[in-house]
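Researcher: Here's the sequence for the chain we discussed earlier.
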Amino acid sequence: MSSAERSARLELAVAAARRAGDLTLQYFQRADLGVEIKSDDSPVTVADRAAEQLLRKEIAAAFPDDAILGEEFGEQPGTSGYRWILDPIDGTKSFISGVPLYGTLIGVEHEGRSVVGVIHIPGLHETAYAAAGQGAWYLRGDAKPVRAHVSQKPSLGEGLFCTSESRNFERIGRFDAYVKLQNSARIARSWGDAYGYLLVAVGRAEVMVDPMMHVWDCAALQPVIEEAGGTFTDWNGTPTIHATNSIATNGKVLDEVLAITRGA
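Model: Thanks. This is the structure I predict for it:
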């Protein structure tokens, strides 16, 4: 895996995420937006599907030998060793509620590890992106990209804790973890889904914790958080995109968070 291969895929991922995000904005806050409920009880819209189709088309044209996995249309095999992992609208509940904190997520996996990631927040025109070994970057609108860095706050007591939905802690029988995280942090907010991870990457939040995740939720996040100087792990502290839960931190508060999520 060469740096040039990563760079080429990152360049496409950033551009494609922004184009897919622009497409979602055509449907955002529309009164006639239809919402379907999938078998897992999660919502989906025509915007989710159209954005993923756009991403798949652009990826296939540029890297026809790469595999693609998307939340809405499943797996397309490849032969190159690279696999694109897509979540066209991460935070569909925010999207259908007219709240601009949803995101478009693109990750690129190589040999089981995500090496390219893009977190794009269309409604706020904010993007954080990274490739392994090349640092993390933050882009607002059409401004020049700047390096993204996690915060240096040393403890939860001084920091911001974010999550996507407190009810999900109840669903896995760990509402105790939510209560302890909330009570330990200086500020606790449910500015969740993709946006919460962007906040960690750019130093505005110290920790983002989710008790329920899929690989398409995680793949974009790991390289961005790690290249920004932070940590992306499961609730046991393992750096992975293949877990059913996740923790992103600035690194300095990780041990505090793990003491809670592990149940110590």
